[in-house]
Amino acid sequence: MLKADVVIIGSEGAGARAAIEVARHGVKPLVLTKGPIGKSGATITAMADFEVDSRSAKEVLGLNGDIRDSQEKFFEDTLISGGYLNNQKMLERHVTEIPAIAKEMIDKGMKVEKDLDKAAGQSYPRSVITTGHEFMKPLIKMCKEENVAVYEYFMATDLVKKDGKIVGVVGLDLSTGEFVEISTKAVVLATGGGMQIYPYSTAPDELTGDGHAMAFRAGASFIDIEMVQFMGGTMIAPPAVEGQGFGYALCADLNSMDCWMLNKFGTRFMAEKDPVHKEHVTRDKLAVGMMTEVFEGRGTPNGGIYVSVSHLPDQIIDHYPAAKNVPYLSKDWDFMGFNYKQIMEEAKRGKALEMAVASHFFCGGIKIDETGSTGIPGFYAAGEVTGGTEGGNRISGNALTQVLVQGKDAGASAAEYAKKASFEELPKDMGQYKDRVLSPISREGSESSFELRKRLQKLCWDNMCVVRTEESLLYVISELQKFKEILPHIGIRAKNRVYNREWVDALQLESLITVAELVATGALQRKESRCVHYRQDFPVADYQNYSMNNILENDNGKISAHFEPCVVTSISIPKEAPKNE
Question: Do 42 and 384 form a contact (C-beta atoms < 8 A)?
Answer without folding.
Answer: yes
